[in-house]
Amino acid sequence: MSRRKILFVTTDQQRYDTLGCNGGVVARTPVIDGLAASGIRYERAVPQSVVCMPSRSTILTGQHPTTHGVWMNGVPLPVDAPSVAEVLHEAGYRTALIGKAHFEPYFDPFMRFTENALAASGPVPPAGTHRGFEHLEFATHGAMGPQHYARWLGREHPEAAGMYYSVVDHDLQVNAAGGGDTGAPQVHVNPIPREWYHTDWVADRAISWLDSLDADDDWFCWVSFPDPHHPWDPPQSEVGRVDWRDVPLPAGYLSSAEEREAVLDAKPRHWRLWYDGQLVSNYEAPAAWVPATMTDSQVREVNARNAVECELIDEALGRVLAAVAARGWSDDVDVIFTTDHGEFQGDYGLLFKGPYHVDSLMRLPLVWRPAPSAVGSGAGAAGAGAGGGGAVVSSPVGLVQLAATFCSIAGVEPLPWMQGSVLPSADDDGLAPERVLTEWDSELFGVDVHLRTVTRDRWVCTAYLPGTVHDGSEGELYDLVDDPLQRVNRWDDPSCRSLRDDLLDDLWSSQPERHIPRIDVQAPV
Amino acid sequence: MSAQARRGSVRRQVRIGCPPEQVWAAIGDPARIAEWFPGIESATVDGSVRVITTGSGLPIPEEILTNDAVQRRFQYRITAPMFQEHLSTLDVLDLEDGTSLVVYAADAVPATLALVIAGAAGNALLHLRTMLEAGEGGRP
């Protein structure tokens, strides 16, 4: 008898509120909404890092960044790091990763990193597997680099390679150039035909791999869409789906500069310094772009284009699910949809991401549609508690739990090195973790920032370690229920002092094991 | 660094359990860089010009500026057009206990390239340490 198959779908830098099932009103996402309606929707899924490489490494290893060692973008995950894909492969699962990996840096003129080298050798690793995957086809945010998608586009449609936005400028900094109707940064008119765009390519390659399998194979397929991460350059043919002029300003965006700046001034200093263009602490946003210059129209246009990209992902996922159905697998497939971290998208007058532990970056979409054949099959079947579907888990959960969840779905005992437990199927099933941890460390050209955060009991509490602009006494404390937009920092509120101290005690006593030796940053990203 | 700084300066270092003469034997011979620098496939030296070829097949021309066996200092600059400025400095320091400290510093415009070069060099120093401490590659 075959085991449950696993379709794991990730996006990059997607906010919680971009899905219809989470209350989003701009993008139409009927496929993911349908999965949520028949499965489990998580209302507070929290990443362990708010940037790509550490967060993706957490998904793969089931470990916090402190433990797997990828403490910021540009730090490569050791090739021999633990991998849930390897566990599943050794258990007999066929394994594939199609789309954006990013466990290793992209900037690699020496071609030192395996992911970049693999693109030259085809989808099957010469060693048989890489990090447990027997089939890998990589894509990222355009046609740059040695990724499989870039090579495919250059070979099949060379005229399209220059249609994408250039993600770096002539100084190899994250590009600040604007476009579209409003001149918003990283907005670009991309004339590429939709069927050549990376979202559809990822779906096409996933379908091709699934079609290559035997009907009774057990499989784990990680479909990793590079969107809706900036640049916001979806195929221009699709942009008309959402007229930016009709897009409401996000709840987290304050049109009044005075009000916006008052909120920022109540947060640790680096918030306002970045907003004013006086400090760039990381490589995740354009250094030459000053957030204070952003207009209401630019916020609307970014959100419109982001919504178009979310719709394309939803439709691409629909095609993958149709291919799964055509193989007769639908009843035996668990589908998990999530992302690696969020995006400001206008909140607080900011775009992109950075060392800011608020819902914009930390509240993620997460949907688990357990295999229908498993639902109601009794105790021990992961996700079986979802019952008839439409379950909602409001307790905080973490991406660090995904590895153990995959093992549980596959009927494999989670490994001791996995730091997360199986995802709960309901708030009252006893599986919700007591706390969820998030961390940030960055050191870039003389600027360092270090944050440690705990989310629990409706509060999110962030402690700042000493760094370039922080002396170690600063922090953030938000009531997620009474202050859902995290505008009121209660770190110094005397009435919250005892609560803050309790949360900090819990935070410091729960820190995960440190990876030794510390791995150096080897590239910007 | 201001938000707009274009120059980057990045340093990496490693302590190697070998005397400085042995470490310098590898570093001070510019033609041997491919032996200890993962990602460099080959190197040719003609006078003060070295051309390395990376794992991606990219040839990178360099000018050797200093090769001082007394101070055990090696400096070079990459002359490829993508570098508006570049200087890399390798120092081998005698810790006077039979071990050495090797320091690699890269300064570049644009800044990003300093991190790319020094990031790769830092990994290379770790590789060099493994080689030399295993008794490989340290021929005088």
Break the fold down into its secondary structure elements and pairings.
The complex is a heterodimer of chains A (525) and B (140).
Chain A: E1 5-12, H1 30-37, E2 40-46, H2 52-61, H3 65-68, H4 84-90, E3 94-99, H5 114-121, E4 135-138, H6 148-156, E5 178-179, E6 184-185, H7 198-211, E7 219-228, H8 236-239, H9 257-265, H10 269-275, H11 296-326, E8 333-339, H12 359-362, E9 364-369, E10 391-393, E11 397-398, H13 402-410, E12 436-444, E13 447-456, E14 459-464, E15 475-479, H14 497-509
Parallel strand pairs in A: 1-7, 1-8, 2-10, 2-11, 3-4, 3-7
Antiparallel strand pairs in A: 2-9, 5-6, 8-9, 12-13, 13-14, 14-15
Helix pairs in contact in A: 7-11
Chain B: E1 8-16, H1 20-27, H2 33-36, E2 40-46, E3 49-54, E4 59-68, E5 73-78, E6 85-94, E7 100-109, H3 111-133
Describe the protein.
The complex is a heterodimer of chains A (525) and B (140). Chain A is α/β, with parallel strands linked by helices and 525 residues long. Chain A has a single domain, classed as Alkaline Phosphatase, subunit A (3-Layer(aba) Sandwich), CATH 3.40.720. In chain A, 26% of the residues lie in helices and 17% in strands. Chain A has helices spanning 30-37, 52-61, 65-68, 84-90, 114-121, 148-156, 198-211, 236-239, 257-265, 269-275, 296-326, 359-362, 402-410, 497-509, and strands spanning 5-12, 40-46, 94-99, 135-138, 178-179, 184-185, 219-228, 333-339, 364-369, 391-393, 397-398, 436-444, 447-456, 459-464, 475-479. In chain A, the strands form three sheets. In chain A, strands 1, 2, 3, 4, 7, 8, 9, 10 and 11 form a nine-stranded mixed sheet that branches. With 140 residues, chain B is of the alpha+beta class. Chain B is 25% helix and 41% strand. Chain B has three helices and seven strands, in the order E-H-H-E-E-E-E-E-E-H. Chain B has helices at 20-27, 33-36, 111-133, and strands at 8-16, 40-46, 49-54, 59-68, 73-78, 85-94, 100-109. The longest helix of chain B has 23 residues, at 111-133. Chain B starts with 7 loop residues before the first strand and ends in a 7-residue tail after the last helix. The A-B interface holds A 74, 105, 107-112, 116-117, 146, 168, 170-173, 277-280, 283, 287-288, 444-447, 520-524 and B 1-6, 8-10, 12, 38-40, 54-56, 58, 60, 110-113, 115-116, 119-120, 122-123.
